[in-house]
Amino acid sequence: MPQYKVAIVGAGPAGYFAAQALQNLQTADLSFSIDMIERLPTPWGLVRSGVAPDHPKIKTVSKVFEKVATADGFNLYGNVELGIDISIDVLIAKYDAVVIATGSANGKKLGIPGEDLLGSISAAQFVPWYNGHPDFADFDPKLDCDTAVVIGAGNVAMDVARMLALEPSELDETDTALHAIDALHKSNIRKVVISARRGPEHAAFTSPELRDLPKLEHTNVLMQPIDITAAIERAGAEPEKEVRNNLEAMRVISELEQGKHDRTLEFQFLCIPKEFRGNGKVEEVVFTTSAGEEKIIKCGLVITAIGYEAEPLEGIPYEKGKVLNDEGRVSDNIYVVGWAKRGPSGVIGTNKSDAADDFAKRP
């Protein structure tokens, strides 16, 4: 019976779903021996270090990964870094196939003046910090100001803003890193603004995340009714289901009673970030509105959540933040899955269909 040796580089969702796809292809006449290598001592990638701690249900996918990991022929090797502890050439020589599943860990830049000021950080730093990622144990997000701005219109931006705007005691029973809970309890931030370039109808939030916002017990959630009404008109009579669900959730938020709490999470739309200003540190963000006017928000912290790029690996071709590939194939026996393949799009479950589609096509 043919048995193929496969190395999977990266122990996050993409890597585990790739392993699962291979296991599902096994028959009486075909089997796979899978060695997964991971730079960190622990597996699960973004499930461990990218999911907001106040949304624990999302992490239950780890039970799927545990089933994959306990199947015959699967081995996990932690604390092994490609390019440091082992080279791609060695993997190619020793395995029938190598699957790159390293994700996208670097935050994209806006490319505007002032982005390097103290107090300007990326969600790619802040999220792993509050999730206890070892690379960010000593990171200091500077929470000594009263206002923070989060730039982005996806679930990562929403998670970041919510973590800043929550009453910190709501995180005490979660698996938020202890150093982050301590820092958030000491935080002076009382207002968080989520800023999006485009209108509400184009936001990449998912409706379940939006529907959770009115449930916040100690935080005002503010959307301007005029913004949502205009977005509904622009979306037309028959918008796509996702857009319709999002706009309905936003309409509910826009009608919430305001001013009951000391903490506020506010959304602004159709504002393009132009510049961060300050004397050695961020003191204000300058936006251009859809009307061409300048809008300034005074703040001491700006977190950009505008997407991620893959970290280049020696011997692997990259372009525009992704591994160069043809429907998942990089070269004769090198493949890529997940964000490293397609960029930072979709949710955790998207990696399952992505991997299954890739390997279903392969001989």
List the helices and strands and how they pair.
Blueprint: E1 3-9, H1 13-25, E2 31-37, H2 46-49, H3 62-69, E3 74-77, H4 88-94, E4 97-100, E5 106-107, E6 120-122, H5 123-130, E7 147-151, H6 155-165, H7 178-186, E8 191-195, H8 207-212, E9 219-222, H9 225-235, H10 241-254, E10 263-268, E11 271-277, E12 284-289, E13 294-298, E14 301-304, E15 308-309, E16 318-319, E17 322-323, E18 329-331, E19 334-336, H11 339-342, H12 350-360
Parallel strand pairs: 1-2, 1-4, 2-3, 4-19, 6-14, 7-8, 7-14, 8-10, 9-10
Antiparallel strand pairs: 5-15, 11-12, 12-13, 16-17, 18-19
Helix pairs in contact: 1-12, 9-10
Question: Please, what is the average pLDDT?
Answer: 91
Instruction: Please bin the fraction of helical residues.
Output: 25-40%
Q: Look at the helices and sheets and give the structural class.
A: alpha/beta
Q: Which architecture name of the largest domain does CATH use?
A: 3-Layer(bba) Sandwich
The rough form would be described as globular
| CATH topology (level 3) name of the largest domain | FAD/NAD(P)-binding domain
- Beta-strand content estimate: 15-25%
Number of domains: 2
SS elements, strand count:
19
How big is the Rg? 22 Å
End-to-end separation? 15 Å
Determine the number of helices (DSSP H or I, runs of at least 4 residues). 12
Low-confidence parts lasting 5 or more residues at pLDDT below 50?
none
Query: Which CATH C-level class of the largest domain is it?
Result: Alpha Beta
* Largest beta sheet: strand ordering: 3-2-1-4-19-18
Tell me the major beta sheet. 6 strands, mixed
Q: What's the CATH H-level superfamily name of the largest domain?
A: FAD/NAD(P)-binding domain
